[in-house]
Amino acid sequence: MEGAKTVAETVYVLCGVTSTLCAFMLLKGYRSRRIPLLFWAGLCFIGLALNNVLLFVDLVLVPHVDLFIWRTLPALAGSFILLYGLIWETR
User: What is the pLDDT of residues 15-41, one digit of tens each?
Assistant: First the structure.
């Protein structure tokens, strides 16, 4: 059972790192090309990265504390930001 827990913790960390790198690359692309959709997607991935970090904190560092709402809010906010950007850019 310990091996499965280690794999899960590794996956949580890798998801957080991947989301953070995606946000960084999207915002860097926006800075150089000024394509607004890159900006909105970068903000969305910031929310997703924060969600992944809070998932790790919730399930690994403080498993006795339920952070479900707090770790879901950044992902929800990021999704709404991307949705807003997609609607705004079609006008």
Answer: 999 999 999 999 999 999 999 999 999
